[in-house]
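Quick one, probably user error.
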């Protein structure tokens, strides 16, 4: 017979704690009676418990981002380091969060832990926000009695990872954003501004310059087909995303292209190496066996080529090979990483060596992004000047020629 899972709801409550102080909050439970029972277990005498009303429009809060999870982890680690009990730490952290949705998630986790569930088990029920690596590291900290230290390591890892993602996003977003703006401005000129000049030119009664004629024909083409062009571009972007998601061959081809792309390819390569070293250093220092650590690392590579390479490294390590030998066999990792791994294996300080590699390549990504931005700014400004200025010159060229003739 199939087991029916009871649906839980969020309840708001007011009550009195053991010190006689009035307190309030939110709890998740199957029924009002269950929530009251949970509160009594926590030493709170419930006075009023009612189901939380659903917002009229939308979810009633902002989406939870990886940055929210990173902030939550760091604040929780700080609270525990200060000696605050875990359950009480949840309340303090939730009160200081700006995102209401994140605060609600923290309250749900707190209620799970307060009812006797382990922290790792509580966050494992929210895989959308806490991945397998996060859950495994917390579980390792709970089992070893070093949860406070483990949370600090996770917080550092999440902060470094998000900072690295932000740098990559900055490198890719800036030129794309400028090109999109340039396309929109050019489209407006071709559809709205240039037709006004075309009406004026009809009264000239003389032959227009070739450059001007070319721009006018381009304007007529865009006016007639702009809607189809917009739909085609949007459809192409959608189909590309779907193809990359559904087809391993397309995803592999895209990842290969990105690694070979000028300038951007080097930044992506360095970010992959930094992510590999950072994740492996964090998991290995947490006491996770190397084979299991490599499994976690393969899921965070962000590139199919390196994901497959890391899985091959894991298979080689399982057969008894040294990590240095397994990494070198892939021919995908830089010599600095290989040398540091060799030193780390010989000295027994692999996690420290990997952390140094991660710091080096994170700094390299930061410098590369700054250099790219400095290089692109004059190029993009020149491009915009040529495109927009060229259109304006084409429109005023007949007027200049008439003035010269007079």
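Nope, works fine. Designed sequence:
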């Amino acid at each position: 017979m199939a087991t029916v899972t009871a649906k839980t709801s969020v309840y708001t409550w007011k009550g009195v704690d053991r010190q006689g102080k009035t307190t309030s909050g939110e709890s998740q439970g199957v029924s009002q009676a269950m929530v009251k029972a949970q509160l009594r277990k926590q030493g709170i005498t419930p006075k009023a418990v009612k189901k939380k009303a659903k917002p009229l429009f939308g979810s009633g809060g902002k989406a939870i981002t990886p940055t929210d999870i990173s902030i939550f982890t760091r604040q929780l680690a700080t609270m525990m380091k200060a000696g605050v009990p875990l359950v009480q730490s949840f309340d303090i952290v939730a009160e200081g969060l700006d995102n209401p949705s994140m605060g609600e998630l923290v309250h749900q986790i707190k209620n799970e832990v307060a009812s006797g569930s382990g922290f790792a088990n509580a966050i494992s029920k929210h895989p959308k926000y806490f991945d397998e690596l996060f859950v495994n590291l917390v579980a390792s900290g709970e089992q070893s009695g070093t949860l406070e230290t483990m949370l600090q390591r996770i917080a550092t890892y999440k902060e470094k990872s998000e900072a690295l993602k932000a740098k990559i996003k900055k490198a890719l977003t800036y030129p794309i954003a400028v090109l999109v703006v340039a396309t929109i401005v050019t489209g407006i000129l071709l559809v709205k501004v240039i037709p006004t000049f075309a009406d004026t030119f009809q009264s000239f009664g003389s032959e227009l310059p070739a450059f001007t004629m070319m721009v006018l024909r381009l304007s007529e083409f865009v006016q007639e087909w702009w809607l189809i062009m917009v739909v085609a571009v949007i459809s192409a972007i959608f189909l590309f995303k779907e193809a990359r998601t559904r087809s391993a061959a397309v995803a592999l081809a895209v990842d290969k292209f990105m690694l070979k792309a000028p300038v951007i390819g080097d930044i992506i390569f360095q970010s992959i190496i930094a992510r590999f070293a950072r994740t492996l250093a964090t998991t290995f220092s947490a006491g996770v066996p190397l084979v299991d650590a490599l499994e976690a690392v393969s899921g965070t590579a962000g590139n199919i080529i390196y994901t497959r390479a890391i899985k091959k490294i894991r298979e080689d390590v399982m057969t008894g090979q040294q990590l240095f030998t397994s990494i070198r066999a892939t021919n995908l990792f830089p010599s600095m990483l290989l040398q540091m791994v060799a030193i780390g294996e010989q000295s027994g300080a692999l996690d420290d060596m990997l952390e140094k590699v991660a710091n080096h390549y994170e700094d390299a990504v930061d410098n590369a992004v700054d250099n790219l931005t400095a290089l692109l700014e004059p190029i993009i400004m020149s491009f915009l000047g040529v495109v927009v200025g060229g259109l304006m010159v084409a429109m005023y060229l007949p007027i200049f020629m008439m003035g010269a003739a007079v």
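The first helix runs from residue 32 to 41.
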